[in-house]
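Quality-control log, excerpt.
Job 1 of 2 completed; input and output follow.
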Amino acid sequence: MRRRTKRAIALLATVLTVTGIGWGSALWVERYSQAFIYEQIEAVPSRPTAIVLGARVYADGSPSPALQDRLHAALDLYRAGKVRRILVSGDHGRHGYDEVNAMHAWLIERDVPVEDVFLDHAGFRTLDTMERARQIFEVREAIVCTQRFHQHRSVFLARRAGIDAVGLVADRRVYLHEGANARREFVARVMAVADSYLLKRSPRYLGDPIPIDGEATASHDRKTQLGKGQ
């Protein structure tokens, strides 16, 4: 009986410790980034670049509602003169699925000049997006465009990557699965802290520099050039 009691106590202590570390990590990400997140475009300080994080694209190439709202945030920033360039970053790692050309097409259709939209085809994770933005695209200052639930982690990872980043909340509607998103985000924040401070993970892919103040065409692929991003 004593042995079982000791095992139960040890298990409980382990669970409590892991839970405490998890909640502490998630809270740290929120507190770290809170001062850099803005709800209104008028209050956001200007930066040279907007970073739009990828999200689901439908089979016909149209952005999902969440992705549309991220793009709308970047478009509003561009039209307001808050940013000069837009970096769209997402998943283009398999045949038949392409977030970045869909994002590019959406912006071009709304009269953003081609030379001001850069594509990051290997933004498979938020960490990848931010590290590649700094290392490949040489972004030093940026406004991050994503939903509120995702914003804290995004700004945290951007600033950890060496970018002077602020965030503009892109919420324009009530989204499906908000509860599930919040639960996944809790785990993702814990992993962000582990990746950043303990594991020191790098992006899946790096490559040659494509400076954000250079030619946008260096980031385009054949699909972009043919105008088939939609």
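Job 2 of 2 completed; input and output follow.
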Amino acid sequence: MNYVNLYDEIAKTTYPGRGIVIGVSEGGGYAVTAYFIMGRSENSRNRIFVEEGEGIRTEAYDPSKLVDPSLIIYSPVRVMGDITIVTNGDQTDTIYDEMKRGRCFAESLRGRRYEPDPPNFTPRISSILHVTGGKFDYQMSILKSDNGDPDSDNRYTFSYWGPKAGKGHFIHTYMSDGDPLPSFEGEPTPVILQGDIDEFTEKVWKALNDDNKVSLFTRYIEIATGKYETRIINKNKRR
């Protein structure tokens, strides 16, 4: 697959759902990640990202309107030493706990499946960024039903070693809007990354569909030191 412009790829559909981007900054000095959420229902749109320790969690913007928190309230980002975990659900905690016990990334997800939300059976997308000793590598995973068949699972893990400056990969839950929502297909899309953290954040946010976007998290981790900067944008802003 050829590398494509990340912002054009995000803007191709009105509803990519939830998405993870990982790669290396244009100048080569930073490990880059982004995680965004979108929503079609009032319950899904009633969310914001808030910082929690070195990671983030989702939270109801208006708690009085929260209907079912089971699949929308979770910690998308957690940090375990030199590993940053980014996922679209509570499997963040599963990965964190299992890797603490010594399991690898793929093994940590063996007890998890796609989300129990028929008829969509939303894929679980997960990733880890490993920054240590001035080096960076990352892995991505998708757990999905087999073309909407809840009795069959498709489980894929992708590993990226020696990533190059200005390049990365993008994975998301849905190919497009629909009913039911069609699951992501194929490998994570190779993408071109541009700009510093502020330009990157602004361009990703702008590329997301105005009606459906909810929140965006971005982080630049300095590969030489492990120090990081974070940005969060919420469509619902608290006073």
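Post-run check on job 2. The mean pLDDT is 97.
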